User: Fold Gluconokinase from Ciconia maguari.
Amino acid sequence: LGWKFYDADDYHSPENKKKMAEGIPLDDEDRIPWLCALHDMLRREESSGQDAVLACSALKKMYRRVLVSGASAIESNHPEQPGENVALKILFVHLDGPIDIIAGRLEKRRGHFMPPELLKSQFDTLEPPSAPENFITVSLEKSLPEIALEIERTIFQG
Assistant:
């Protein structure tokens, strides 16, 4: 795509990284400041006319609202309030697959602060995207080229 790529894990606080490394799942209080910072980063990219890809485990609907609308999404179930910045246009790509496939991939990952033992807590927290969210679901059981092509097709079809 030629877009900037960001891995949200790079933006976790040292405290969040330490907590995960110790096998302690993050909670909303840990994640909200991180998500707000990611929203601000995406807002800066949009303001400069840049498209970007953000790899992020936005597990809950509320987390995705924060990515779209920033901190105002926390106080309100309405992503936009009069007089506030217009919500970012984000396509969420929900990579869906069985826990055993994802666990296998995590086992192969080296040098990351999140241990595979936290995967179950992520599945327990997961609220898959649903209407009216702007999303597609792509199976992780497809090949990487098939996954990339499906995402690219969706982006360019509008």
User: Anything to note?
Assistant: The first helix runs from residue 14 to 21. Residues 98 and 104 are 10 Å apart (CA to CA). The helical segments are 14-21, 28-47, 61-69, 72-75, 99-108, 119-125, 144-157. The chain has two domains: 1-90, 92-157.
